[in-house]
Amino acid sequence: MKNTQFLLAKRPVGTPTRDNWEQVESDIPELGPNQVLVKIAYISLDPAMRGWMNDGKSYIAPVKIGEVMRASTVGEVISSTSPDYREGDYVFGHGGVQQFAVSDAKDLHKIDISIAPLERYLGVLGMPGMTAYFGLLNTGQPKEGETVVVSGAAGAVGTVVGQIAKLNGCTVIGIAGGKDKCQYLVDELGFDGAIDYKSENVKKALKTLCPEGVDVYFDNVGGEILDDVLTQIRMHARIVICGAISQYNNTASVKGPSNYLSLLVNRARMEGIVVFDNVKHYGEAAEQMAKWIAEGKLKAKEHVVKGIEHFPETLLMLFNGENTGKLVLKVDNE
Amino acid sequence: MKNTQFLLAKRPVGTPTRDNWEQVESDIPELGPNQVLVKIAYISLDPAMRGWMNDGKSYIAPVKIGEVMRASTVGEVISSTSPDYREGDYVFGHGGVQQFAVSDAKDLHKIDISIAPLERYLGVLGMPGMTAYFGLLNTGQPKEGETVVVSGAAGAVGTVVGQIAKLNGCTVIGIAGGKDKCQYLVDELGFDGAIDYKSENVKKALKTLCPEGVDVYFDNVGGEILDDVLTQIRMHARIVICGAISQYNNTASVKGPSNYLSLLVNRARMEGIVVFDNVKHYGEAAEQMAKWIAEGKLKAKEHVVKGIEHFPETLLMLFNGENTGKLVLKVDNE
Fold this sequence. Notes:
CATH class of the largest domain in chain A: Alpha Beta
Oligomer: homodimer
Radius of gyration of chain A: 20 Å
Mean pLDDT of chain A: 96
């Protein structure tokens, strides 16, 4: 039994290309004590992966050259030397971009596929869902009646942010690329409005849709859109910096928000979040989200691409805005 | 009796020049009910004045063309139709850049020159002192043992921020322009270190002086220095955005902080402040500051330039970094 793996072959400059990766067929190592062999079913594709490919200090160590690319994964236990896991269990872990992963038992979490399908544990019930939940509620602190704007609104995190904001009694405006995505946000997810940044003037549209200004802005994209929203924030606004996908493939330096002095004028704040800080509370959040899903109040959507061999080009879909909902790579082709 | 006034003649592009101002000799209007005529002794010169000269929405309305330039002032009451003020009282107000001001009694505050000299009520005991006090303590929230960095450190606000941080048990590093200012911060005000941004590499110096990183950064300058500090912040750092004097005379757009994603990596926040929000608590703060001054724990320094006719060029000293401590314009020449 061979294991198809994607290794980081060299660090990208700008947008990653196929030659940043090396696809190899490896042997599966023997299990040590308290280890688990997982057959990976779905691999999570996240904007943050672009950052992990860079060298330098960040919130997490970079992936090393020659290492299997880091990724969250869900799959089925094939064999185990841990008393806590047995064949047939379904687990979440950080298995990486490969078909099979050997993990320490302590790094895995069991998942219950009677509550939700396997891939959903990479989306609403996984990191993106947790990011949305804690980022919005703890850092954004939306109050009933306030206006919440989210960028990357049709993505894995954005779709959840908007829906949780609605559940908290807010007016919610999403910013996304393309008519279809915008329609999806309003028609399917119940957003109060959506702005297609590819065809609309974002600043003008915000003025129309948020006449009293923006109380909470959940930013996944950075760049010009962050600057546009900064011009429309309200007194004591909270800006949650979750990511800056528009800047991750920059070869020049990141575009800083020129309008940041709006923070001063409006006594507003901008705060960065990293989901891992909330690990102790994932359980409560997942329970709440599963309840909302069961009640039909929170809709989940995964965008599934099949075949691990398509990993390099599938990852780029994130940066080209080609996915709606959570982008996952299904390891096999069926 | 004539009143020398400086009116805003036209809005500046970039650095203000003499022709942005019109110097006029006016009559002093009769007092209406509950009004006070004040002979202004000192005019406060503040970086914020540059912003008030611009058109457009901000935290305060712009000064109109043809209006007396807005400024905080201290002076002596000459005549009054208010029962609350009488000839010989000393008052703080927003008298503007002129020799005499007619103010509504409700817009003035009596000051006690037995506690501190008149001009100090424009500095440590005035807006700059309040800005430092509330900005640092309420928004920066420094804890004992933390490292506080302040830019514009030798200015009216910076000198007070640093000293209050020291009084709160912090390690304090100031960033200022020039050897003399840096020496003053360390030798006279008890800062733990100072960085001369004109001759040193700020990022390198921060690494040396703040080996564990920066917990609180009080920013008066913006621009490159904000970006340098962002690379050195510590987990959960607080950045207080008080001003951005390096950017006020820009003719191009403001330089946004390219390194703002350090907020994400470090789960840090950046928050804007406007001193006026604390008006209800000025009394407590002034009392505390006066106590510190009396105990010799807080040093005050004013940089006095004489002669209202020198207003235009004296204002520019702020942007050229020519003042140490609070810059005030003494109305008369003696």
